[in-house]
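Worked Example 4.2. Consider the chain below.
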Amino acid sequence: MKIDFYKYEGTGNDFIIIDNRDERLKANNTALWKKLCDRHFGIGADGLMLIQKRKGYDFEMVYFNADGNKSSMCGNGGRCITHLAKKLDIVKGKSANFIATDGKHEAVFVDKNTIKLKMNDVTNINDSNLYSVLNTGSPHYVTLIENVIDIPVKADGSAIRNSKPFKKEGINVNFLQIVPNKTPLLRTYERGVEDETLSCGTGTVAAALVLAKKGLATAKDHCDIQTMGGMLRVWFKKTGNSFSNIWLEGPATYVFKGQIRI
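Applying the procedure from the previous section yields the following C-alpha cells:
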C-alpha cells in the first residue's frame, strides 16, 4: 500500500504527518511509525502525527514519538498539524479547534506561517535547589546552568531521564541558560527520541514558566526562548505561582509532500 505523507518542521523539530481521516492506518502500529521516523531506513523525523476525525472538533491530533510509541502533547507538532489542516482545507478560517491526548486546544494564525497554540493551564511547579519539574502537556525537568552550549545534552539528559525518580514514566530534560541582555537559551533532551532535538515546544513552555515564576521572564506577560532551531515566544497570565492563558507562538514550516510504500 502506498501512503501520502507531509514533512513539516517547527524551529527544527521535524515531523511526518499523515492525513488518516479515512482510518486506513491503525494507530497502534508501533513498528511502522518507528520505521518511518528512522533517519536511515525511513523518512526521518522526531515524531509522527495522524490527522483523524473527531466529532465536535476540526480534527484530532494523534502523536507518536520517534520510537513508535504513542506520546503526550507536542507543542511544535500542534502548530505544524494545524498548518497542514489549513492546507488541506480542514480548517476554514484563521483559527482551529482540535483535540490531542491532553485535551482540547485552540490554534490561531498570526500570519501565513506563524501560529499561536493554546496550552493547558499549569498550577503546579515542583522546585528543588537544582531543578524544577512541571507538566505542560508533557512532563519536563528544567535546570538552569551557566554554559548550555558546552553541555553534553544527550549524555546528561539520558542520565537524568533514566534516573530512579523518572525512569518508569520518562521525562524530558531541559538545560536553560540565562544570557545577560540576550534571550534565554534552551537545549532539550526528549524522551521517545532519546536524544537532543533542535527544539521542543512543551519544553519551551516549561522553561518560560519556570523563568516567570523566578521573576526572570523577558516580559511581564510573555517570555522569548532561543532554542537550537529558532526562536519561540510563550504568552501567559501569572496569578501567584499558577499560570493560565498560555500560548506557544512560533513558525510551522511545510517542507515537502511525499509518498512511501508500506
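The chain has two domains: 2-119+252-261, 126-244. The chain has four helices and 17 strands. Compare this with Example 4.1 before moving on.
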